[in-house]
TrEMBL record:
It is an enzyme of class 3 (hydrolase). This is beta-galactosidase. It comes from Arabidopsis suecica (Swedish thale-cress). PROSITE patterns: GLYCOSYL_HYDROL_F35, SUEL_LECTIN. It comes from the Eukaryota. Its main location: secreted. Pfam families: BetaGal_gal-bd, GHD, Glyco_hydro_35, SUEL_Lectin. The lineage of its organism: Eukaryota, Viridiplantae, Streptophyta, Embryophyta, Tracheophyta. GO terms for biological process: carbohydrate metabolic process. Belongs to the glycosyl hydrolase 35 family.
Length: 786
């Protein structure tokens, strides 16, 4: 401080004033650079009770989660660009430990695991990054991101003060931080990353770990701090986060969250835009209005940083899906769909909200705050600086619309909505009034030239004779073991085999015999003497069950062969790492003699184990022979519809695109090979490739807004419906209402939009003519065909 004062005094008395002022500016710049170590473009990210500050300015920050391994490297620039165009400042990603360190101390950052490339793509787009290292991430990712070898280390206990665990966690975290530092990717070094995260939602489970849990979270904080990243660290859902860790909120709504320290700004790391899907479950949906409501409400109530989880969910390729039973699609009903298309109206309605919030940045982050309570859960919040004031009117009543007089003007605020008035007078946005088009996505058959409508298939059965008839595997143990322990999670498939010698006079032998298996296998197939006696799939989440099936046993040697299949290891909850998977027993042969039941426990028999299937081992998926086809024309994403099939794994051009348990997608070009492993049986003749794109678009927009219609790069081919007045119905079934404008709306839209990739329409009486709708709010409803 004193240095500056002296220099200034000196300057003001200098005759060569101009020259010295320039010198002073560069001198202070150099001093700054020295202070933040890395110079040039270093950005100082800090925080105060109100907001994250960047180079001393409080910011309104909007961020979206895009996980790099859930898309292909080719998709990254487009996804990130769409995030920026959607009004985001930052992209958030987790770091996936088990993907990067599949074997202890052997690392993989290739292909879509190239974290540095992903971060640089964010940087090239001029956006900020939020790096959630975890390294426990949950994320519906296999085993929450923990490598299974970690579980199998001696004396290991996860997420507590266990030395072996802490060493491994520190080793991985340090390595990631060093990699990122080496590339100068932290904001303190001139890079894009403004925030880093350690652990993940530990506060939700800390109670189960007792005192050790508290000590562990303190250790996490110290360890992270010692890594000296130069940007703030966050801990989500951690209301005892030790300073200087910033605790943040995750959930569908975080307006009522308050951080544990008055100096921590109110931040929301996960606003769930939808949800993940389980096999057999429904496609989750969260309405656009509700997501927008939650965001606007958060900013009404002093929030300043908000991240969408997910902004683009993507795909759980290969065996990365968590579980059990989490699907390969991780679409999440996010603003960008699984394929990277705009999920409209969610994307557009939120983009408009982001623009409004950004325009109010200064008032929101520096303004004095006051609220007016109108009763019945309606409140107005005024943010006021000397130059300007901005207002929110929130109606948290779920059922009743409100009409209020605020500062002399009447406002209609629909139930469960927030209106934003950037100048406290004009409502420019209401979360429940969508003025963005709805895009209806359609899948179309592959239109590549000369492509036959069905694919040609060649078959090869899985060679299972040796396991079925001889019961011989790779290792033997006189115990039934957890699948994770035997296989290290190298495959979904583990064979458990044993041979039982039954003497002719063994009392268990007789009629009505059965095999009873206490199992935690996610899917089970059972064979006795080469015969498939049955299989089992879990219903209603009961992964601990008893499977019993009639079976025929003979005097002499009987081979029992059980195939245990995992469908994603658990990723959430206290001690989830110890949830058993596989055939943990006991296993019994049951005999019946009249009323008497004879039980033979096989649990301590000699069990033989074999991991994996021979087709996987022999890499059938990379062979030239199977079905090939030409890539569909155009640039729309390609999906493979596995109609008619049961359950298995699919590969495109040798890349494992994931488990199927019915339909799938990929990014493909040129001549392509599809390989399927089918484990239940099915008919591949219906399998086909399709492109996915916008089929039609609809809108239902209030007067005094501008409607943007777009077919995502394709021309709009026709206007099927248009009416300005009070049209009714929904997309696909719009109808004219009781009042309608004098001009022909369809003709106007046809002229302005048909043949164009997008068009912009002023929704007003000037454009469509007067409509006698009385007090009703006028709207334009349109359905256009792409
Ligand atoms: C959170 C977790 C995320 C993700 C989400 C649900 O609890 O932090 O990683 O699992 O739930 O999609």
């Amino acid at each position: 401080m004193s240095i500056y004062t002296i220099v200034l005094l000196f300057l003001f008395h200098s005759r060569k004033r101009k020259f010295y002022i320039t010198t002073m500016v560069s001198l202070s710049f150099i001093l700054c650079c020295v202070l933040v170590s890395s110079c040039a473009y270093a950005t100082i990210v800090s925080h105060d009770g109100r907001a994250i500050t960047i180079d001393g300015h409080r910011r309104v920050l909007l961020s979206g989660s895009i996980h790099y391994p859930r898309s292909t490297t080719e998709m990254w620039p487009d996804l990130i660009k769409k995030g920026k165009e959607g009004g985001l400042d930052a992209i958030e990603t987790y770091v996936f430990w088990n993907a990067h360190e599949p074997t202890r101390r052997q690392y993989d950052f290739s292909g879509n695991l190239d974290l540095i490339r992903f971060l640089k793509t964010i940087q090239n787009e001029g956006m900020y990054g939020v790096l959630r290292i975890g390294p426990y991430v949950c994320a519906e990712w296999n085993y929450g991101g923990f490598p299974v070898w970690l579980h199998n280390m001696p004396g290991m206990e996860f997420r507590t003060t266990n030395t072996a665990f802490m060493n491994e966690m520190q080793n991985f975290t340090t390595m990631i931080v060093e990699m990122v530092k080496k590339e100068k990717l932290f904001a303190s070094q001139g890079g894009p990353i403004i925030l880093a995260q350690i652990e993940n939602e530990y506060g939700n489970v800390i109670g189960s770990y007792g005192e050790a849990g508290k000590a562990y979270i303190q250790w996490c904080a110290n360890m992270a701090n010692s890594l000296d990243v130069g940007v703030p660290w966050i801990m989500c859902q951690q209301d005892d986060a030790p300073q200087p860790m910033l605790n943040t909120c995750n959930g569908y709504y975080c307006d009522n969250f308050s951080p544990n320290n008055p100096n921590t700004p109110k931040m929301w790391t996960e606003n769930w835009t939808g949800w993940y899907k389980n096999w057999g479950g429904k496609d989750p949906h969260r309405t656009t209005e509700d997501v927008a409501f939650a965001v606007a409400r958060f900013f009404q109530k002093e929030g300043t940083f908000q991240n969408y989880y997910m902004y683009h969910g993507g795909t759980n390729f290969d065996r990365t899906a968590g579980g059990p039973y989490i699907t390969t699609t991780y679409d999440y009903d996010a603003p960008l769909d699984e394929f990277g298309n705009l999920n409209q109206p969610k994307y557009g309605h939120l983009k408009q909200l982001h623009d409004v919030l950004h325009a109010m940045e200064k008032t929101l982050t520096y303004g004095n705050i006051s609220t007016v309570d109108f009763g019945n859960l309606v409140t107005a919040t005024v943010y006021q600086t000397e130059e300007r004031s901005s207002c929110f009117i929130g109606n948290v009543n779920e059922t009743s619309d409100a009409k209020i007089n605020f500062q002399g003007t009447f406002y209609d605020v629909p139930a469960w909505s927030v209106s934003i008035l950037p100048d406290c007078k004009t409502e420019t946005y209401n979360t429940a009034k969508i003025n963005t088009q709805t895009s209806v996505m359609v899948k179309k058959a592959n239109e590549a030239e000369n492509e036959p409508s069905t694919l040609k298939w060649s078959w090869r059965p899985e060679n299972i004779d040796s396991v079925l008839l001889k019961g011989k595997g790779e290792s033997t143990m006189r115990q039934l073991f957890d699948q994770k322990v035997v296989s290290n999670d190298e495959s979904d498939y583990l064979w458990y085999m044993t041979t039982v010698n039954l003497k002719e006079q063994d009392p268990v032998l007789g009629k009505n015999m059965s095999l009873r298996i206490n199992s935690t296998a996610h899917v089970l197939h059972a064979f006795v003497n080469g015969q498939h006696i049955g299989n089992y799939r879990v219903e209603n989440g009961k992964f601990h069950y008893v499977f019993e099936q009639d079976a025929k046993f003979n005097p002499g040697a009987n081979v029992i062969t059980l195939l245990s299949i995992t469908v994603g290891l658990p990723n959430y909850g206290a001690f989830f790492e110890n949830v058993p998977a596989g055939i943990t027993g006991p296993v019994f042969i049951i005999g019946r003699n009249g009323d008497e039941t004879i039980v033979k426990d096989l649990s301590t028999h000699k069990w033989s184990y074999k991991t994996g299937l021979s087709g996987f081992e022999n890499q059938l998926f990379s062979s030239e022979s199977p079905s090939t086809w030409s890539a569909p024309l155009g640039s729309e994403p390609v999906v493979v519809d596995l109609l008619g099939l049961g359950k298995g794994t699919a590969w495109i051009n040798g890349n494992n695109i994931g488990r199927y348990w019915p339909a799938f997608l990929s990014d493909i070009d040129g001549d392509n090979t599809l390989v399927l492993f089918e484990e239940i049986g099915g008919n591949p003749s219906l399998v086909n490739f399709q492109t996915i794109g916008v089929g039609s678009v609809c809108a239902n927009v209030y007067e005094k807004n501008v409607l943007e219609l777009s077919c995502n790069g394709k021309p709009i081919s026709a206007i099927k419906f248009a009416s300005f007045g009070n049209p009714g119905g929904d997309c696909g079934s719009f109808e004219k209402g009781t009042c309608e404008a004098s001009n022909n709306a369809a003709a106007i839209l046809t002229q302005e939009c048909v043949g164009k990739e997008k068009c912009s329409i002023d929704v007003s009486e000037d454009k469509f003519g007067a409509a006698e709708c009385g007090a009703l709010a006028k709207r334009l409803a349109v359905e256009a065909i792409c």
